[in-house]
């Protein structure tokens, strides 16, 4: 046991009390350094920390001048510098930001505007017409993010630019513990809930995240995740600002490969789907170049020489890393569990993968594997702003001598509750402990391990508990499997575990597989040999379309 596991964190950074204070701090310390870079008409535009603060102040002053009744302001639109400025200006003014998922239908997002009591909307031009036609009673104004157009004959930002700005916004004291964000969950089951977060919730999570990663102002990230999710805003945008680093805005996932080469980031905040896609790209590229065997030999060599250091691995795999800009050294994966095999692969080629775990209700970060002291198969060490324990009343089994149960959390990063939903708020807490809904266990060094979701748990008639995610993780590693969902299935009064599978059509075609059903059943039977009898797959059902997914690409439960 390494002593380092007992205290794996970096030192604390500057102590901040709010997101507003973070903006002022970063401008003061990194003023003329680029905070954001993005493409505009085939040119790369850079915005400094000073320019960002100036733009945020201007829009904040504008918001204050409108004298809105509720100060609940929604932001809906694609990733852009203007989206970020709109979001930050709401927080700078001490108002309530309501980021909206752009993948929702018109009916769905209009319903969320109503539920969140939104009285002003910042949106891309494409949403103006539908929002204007809506019959939302509380909505007062709609502002187009990109050209500052205000509907309903409101005051435009361009008109406000001619007015002298006073110091009202600067002098306005922020109540860091008051409601600052309403973020609607995009869960795999059930109706979305409006998570209420304060600026304190967010900033303590940012400060804790900084202790996980050894980054500084020289680093650059490529922002590829939706801005309306707390993972992207907290762990990428705000965290990189805390470091004094730069963030390059990705205009579309389909251009991610090009933008990696263009911006040459050192850091990528991603979800497992992206990590798996990069891995697949590397392997397919090697196969096309008839270098697959060479790549595998190099991986074995790198693994054998892992104690020599990461620089040797980067030299060995320079041609591979050049495909991603050549500077990529760290990938932070969150949003869902990433199989250890991918972490091992990227570690071998010289790219450190840090796996994190969080939930919107916790701002979102709860744990992450510190980049220097990672533990295999773990979702990391509990971050310093909160405490975590395993529910003592609902234990399921033991793993390595540790009790498994629901993960509970308490701390300054835990939400205020669900907006206008006392019933679900009460259900979400066990006293002062927030119930994450995830099942896992914790070792003696405060490192967490996750096994599944409480809602998804399959309780067999013999009393055994099965986490479908654990089985899905093993089956998904089969090359022929593109997507899988494990369920309980009853036929003729007999209960069994069933795997519903969407095959990888390209793999099927390249390998000339005629009887796909039989081929997959044989592959699944091989997996069964590594599972306890009660967890083994009893039947396989194929589907010819992908599973429906959330906006974060998580498969929705059937």
Structure commentary:
By secondary structure, the protein is of the alpha/beta class. Among the domains are: 253-453, Rossmann fold; 458-542, 2-Layer Sandwich (GMP Synthetase, Chain A, domain 3), CATH 3.30.300.30. It is built from 19 helices and 26 strands. Strands 1, 2, 9, 10, 11, 12, 13, 14, 15, 16, 17, 19, 20 and 21 form a 14-stranded mixed β-sheet that branches. A 4-stranded parallel β-sheet has the order 4-3-5-6. A 3-stranded antiparallel β-sheet has the order 7-8-18. The protein is globular and about 70 Å long. Mean pLDDT is 89; it is low at 151-165.
Record the SSE blueprint.
Elements: H1 19-30, E1 34-40, E2 43-48, H2 49-65, E3 72-76, H3 81-92, E4 96-99, H4 106-115, E5 120-123, H5 128-133, E6 141-144, H6 157-160, H7 168-171, E7 179-184, E8 194-198, H8 199-210, E9 220-223, H9 230-243, E10 246-249, H10 256-263, E11 267-270, H11 272-288, H12 292-304, H13 310-316, H14 318-322, E12 330-333, H15 340-348, E13 352-358, E14 365-368, E15 380-382, E16 386-399, E17 402-411, E18 417-418, H16 422-428, E19 429-430, E20 433-442, E21 447-453, E22 458-459, E23 465-466, H17 468-475, E24 481-491, E25 494-503, H18 505-510, H19 516-528, E26 537-542
Parallel strand pairs: 1-10, 3-4, 3-5, 5-6, 9-10, 9-11, 11-12, 12-13, 25-26
Antiparallel strand pairs: 1-2, 7-8, 8-18, 13-14, 14-15, 15-21, 16-17, 17-20, 19-20, 20-21, 22-23, 24-25
């Amino acid at each position: 046991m390494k002593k380092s596991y007992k205290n794996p964190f970096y030192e604390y950074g500057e102590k901040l009390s709010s997101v507003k204070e973070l903006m002022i701090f970063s401008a003061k310390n990194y003023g003329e350094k680029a905070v954001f870079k993005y493409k505009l008409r085939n040119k790369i535009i850079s915005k400094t920390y000073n320019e960002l603060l100036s733009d945020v102040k201007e829009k904040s002053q504008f918001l204050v001048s409108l004298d809105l009744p509720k100060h609940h302001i929604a932001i809906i639109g694609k990733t852009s510098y203007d989206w970020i400025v709109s979001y930050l200006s709401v927080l700078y003014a001490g108002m309530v930001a309501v980021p909206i998922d752009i993948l929702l239908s018109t009916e769905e997002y209009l319903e969320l505007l109503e539920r969140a009591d939104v009285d002003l909307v910042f949106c891309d031009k494409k949403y103006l017409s539908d929002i204007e036609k809506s019959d939302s009673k509380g909505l007062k104004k709609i502002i187009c993010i990109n050209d500052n157009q205000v509907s309903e004959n409101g005051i435009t930002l361009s008109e406000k630019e001619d007015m002298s700005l006073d110091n009202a916004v600067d002098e306005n004291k922020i109540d860091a513990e008051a409601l600052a964000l309403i973020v609607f969950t995009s869960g795999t089951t059930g109706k979305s809930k409006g998570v209420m977060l304060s600026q304190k919730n967010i900033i303590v999570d940012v400060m804790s995240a900084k202790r996980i990663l050894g980054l500084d102002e020289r680093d650059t990230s490529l922002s590829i995740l939706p801005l309306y999710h707390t993972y992207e805003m907290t762990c990428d945008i705000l965290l990189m600002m805390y470091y004094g680093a730069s963030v390059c805005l990705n205009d579309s996932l389909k251009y991610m490969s090009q933008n990696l080469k263009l911006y040459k980031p050192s850091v990528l905040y991603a979800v497992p789907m992206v990590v798996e896609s990069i891995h697949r790209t590397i392997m397919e590229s090697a196969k096309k170049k008839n270098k697959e065997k060479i790549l595998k030999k190099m991986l074995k060599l790198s693994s054998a020489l892992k104690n020599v250091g990461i620089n040797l691995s980067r030299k060995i795999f320079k041609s591979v890393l050049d495909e991603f800009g050549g500077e990529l050294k760290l990938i932070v994966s969150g949003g869902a569990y990433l199989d250890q095999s991918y972490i091992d692969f990227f570690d071998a080629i010289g790219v450190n993968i840090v796996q994190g775990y969080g939930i919107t209700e916790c701002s979102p970060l709860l744990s992450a594997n510190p980049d220097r002291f990672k533990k295999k198969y773990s979702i990391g060490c509990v971050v310093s702003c909160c405490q975590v324990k395993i529910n003592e009343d609902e234990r399921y089994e033991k793993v390595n001598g540790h009790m498994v149960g629901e993960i509970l959390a308490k701390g300054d990063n835990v939400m205020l509750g669900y907006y206008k939903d006392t019933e679900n708020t009460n259900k979400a807490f066990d006293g002062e402990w927030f119930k994450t809904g995830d099942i896992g266990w914790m070792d003696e060094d405060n490192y967490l391990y996750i096994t599944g979701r409480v809602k998804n748990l399959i309780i067999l008639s013999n009393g055994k508990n099965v986490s479908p995610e654990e089985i899905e993780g093993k089956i998904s590693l089969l090359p022929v499997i593109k997507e899988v969902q494990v369920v309980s299935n009853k036929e003729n009064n007999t209960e069994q575990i069933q795997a519903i599978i969407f095959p990888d059509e390209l793999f099927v075609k390249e390998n000339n597989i005629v009887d796909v059903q039989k081929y997959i059943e044989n592959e699944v039977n091989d997996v069964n040999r590594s599972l306890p009898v009660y967890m083994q797959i009893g039947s396989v059902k194929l589907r010819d379309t992908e599973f429906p997914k959330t906006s974060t690409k998580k498969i929705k439960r059937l």
